[in-house]
Write a structure and sequence with these properties.
This protein folds into 3 domains: 95 residues, no CATH class; 73 residues, no CATH class; 59 residues. The chain has 12 helices and 4 strands; from the N terminus they run ααββαβαβαααααααα. It has a 4-stranded mixed beta sheet with strand order 1-2-3-4. The chain is flat and about 85 Å long.
Length: 276
């Protein structure tokens, strides 16, 4: 604290010192010296890419996607990065990768972060991809997100036609499905398959389909078990419902068999305690 006060006095009385220490500042530029309290908030990063190599020259990459205007975006993004570095004591350099929809979206003032934005952060504007005709398969995949809906089916089909192996086809189809389901939420998976002109393809082998199918199966199991429990014990309290909703399919199947032997609600409570 004594050191803080020392620098407060130095810079308050010698403002020209800043111009000597930071290139580009005019000598007559005046500053107000304060020591504000920063209240730490809980932030959640979209993604941190950590190199598998132990060589510390390879950087952490802080990935964030932003599809609409947000005047707090830049301030929140850089706050997240530096709080992460503080908490996890990383000794690697870092780079930023921002996937943004449009240059027209206001994301807050860039001035406080201009150096980092110019030197450490790469910004990819998806709508800029609409102007390009010769894109790599990876960028063409991202282009699907912002393509006009009328052009999307043909573009997706063209992407699938370029893959050379079965494993590449499955991987590409999985990603394209995920994009199209997000873009056309009103369509079923079968309709998306028809959009891709793949009526004979076995989409049940793609990871995306399996995730969706498993989620639907899990919801069906939960609904059935809750109906059986309600019929036997009356209305089930919300905390118990939430516990049951958090069970995996295998746990739900086991509970479905066990509940046949339950004689009172406490039997269910005991089962949940022993199996979750």
């Amino acid at each position: 604290m004594k050191t803080d006060k020392l620098f407060y006095r130095i810079f308050l009385n010698q403002p020209s010192l800043l111009a000597e220490l930071i290139p580009g500042l005019p000598v007559d530029c005046e500053f107000d010296y304060t020591a504000p309290v920063i209240k730490e908030q809980e932030f959640r990063l979209d993604g941190v890419l950590t190199p598998l190599s132990k060589d510390t020259k390879f950087p952490l990459v802080f990935l964030e996607a932003q599809m609409q205007a947000d005047p707090d975006f830049y301030s929140r993004y850089f706050a997240e990065i530096y709080l992460y570095l503080k908490q996890y004591k990383s000794n690697r350099p870092w780079r930023g990768l921002l996937i943004l929809k449009s240059r027209k979206h206001y994301l807050g003032s860039e001035n406080p972060y201009q150096f980092q934005l110019d030197s450490q952060v790469h910004r990819l504007y998806l709508q800029d991809l609409l102007k390009e005709s010769s894109l790599s398969p990876n960028l063409a995949l991202l282009q699907l997100i912002v393509l006009p809906k009328a052009k999307t089916p043909q573009a997706a089909q063209d992407l699938l036609k370029k893959v050379k192996t079965e494993s590449e086809f499955r991987q590409q189809l999985d990603l394209i499905e995920a994009i199209l389901v997000n873009k056309f939420p009103q369509l079923s998976l079968e309709e998306i398959l028809e959009m891709l002109d793949l009526k004979t393809a076995d989409i049940t082998q793609t990871r995306f389909y399996q995730d969706v199918f498993q989620e639907g199966e899990q919801k069906g199991e939960v609904s059935l078990i809750l109906r059986l429990l309600t019929r036997r014990f009356g209305e089930i309290q919300l905390p118990i419902k939430q516990q049951i909703q958090g069970l995996s399919i295998s746990q739900l199947e086991l509970l479905g068999e066990s509940l046949l032997d339950f004689t009172e609600l406490q039997d269910l409570m005991n089962w949940l305690e022993n199996n979750t």
